Write the structure tokens for this entry.
Amino acid sequence: MEDCLFCKIAAGEISSTKVYEDETVYVFKDINPIAPIHYLLIPKQHICCAAKITEENSSVVAHIFEVAAKIAAAEGLSDGYRIVTNCGANAGQSVFHLHFHMLAGVKMGWGAEVVQSAE
Ligand code: AMP
Ligand code: ZN
């Protein structure tokens, strides 16, 4: 898709620090990490967000989770890791190409950080 940052990263048109790649999935380091390990796992095909996962395209999502498990095993993340996707404005999605954040290397709290209360 034109003018999509993560489509361009997946195509190698914009540089990134690659962690893993296969025919359908690309994994790279987040440019602004919030944990010692912060990878982004993306489908190479453009899907804007989790709300657009369908029966037709969902197999790549299953594959992304398989890839995450392989990365975790390869990097020895036996203390655990978190995978999260932000979908839409209230969740803070800033890049509208489906991506899963993989976070590890630190003990994490849990909860939604509220930046603006609902009216
Ligand atoms: P989200 O806010 O959930 O849409 O996440 C988008 C993520 O993409 C953020 O964590 C950014 O730090 C990250 N990001 C933005 N541009 C780049 C880039 N050029 N290379 C790597 N990560 C990026
Ligand atoms: Zn895209």
The pocket of zinc ion (ligand 2) is lined by residues 1, 4, 6-7, 46, 97 (CB under 6 Å). The CA atoms of residues 45 and 91 lie 22 Å apart. The longest strand covers residues 37-43. Residues 59-74 form the longest helix (16 residues).
